[in-house]
């Protein structure tokens, strides 16, 4: 069981108040979401959701876990976003080795157009 996937499934079930809506949101089958939540509950040794034939509600433990799971998933998304932003936005010093005339005619104008300063 991937705990982050299980947390995402649990948060979706809690937010949407059902396994079927959570499954649609996550692009999984309802039984797959049920298995993820059940394995998370088994791993934690606590019941997070109270299930009936008509509704799904949080237990007291589930409500406390939901807050922390949201915070953890938010932190993971933020960390992944910052890495992806760094990967897509070049930064740092660029050193180009080229003959002087080639640099003046070709490299310099390109660097100036991109708001970088050649050194």
Give the helix/strand layout.
Elements: H1 3-16, H2 19-26, H3 30-44, E1 49-51, E2 56-58, H4 60-88, H5 100-113
Antiparallel strand pairs: 1-2
Helix pairs in contact: 1-2, 1-3, 1-4, 2-3
Give a description of the structure.
The protein has five helices and two strands. It is mostly helical and 119 residues long. The chain has one domain (3-88): Winged helix-like DNA-binding domain superfamily/Winged helix DNA-binding domain (Arc Repressor Mutant, subunit A), CATH 1.10.10.10. A two-stranded antiparallel ribbon has the order 1-2. Helix 1 (3-16) crosses helix 2 (19-26), helix 1 (3-16) packs across helix 3 and helix 1 (3-16) crosses helix 4.
The CATH architecture: Orthogonal Bundle
- State Rg: 25 Å
* Beta content: 5-15%
Order of helices and strands: HHHEEHH
Q: Mean pLDDT, nearest integer? A: 88
Percent of residues in helices comes to 55-70%
What is the gist of this entry?
Helices cover 67% and strands 5% of the residues. The chain is mainly alpha-helical and 119 residues long.
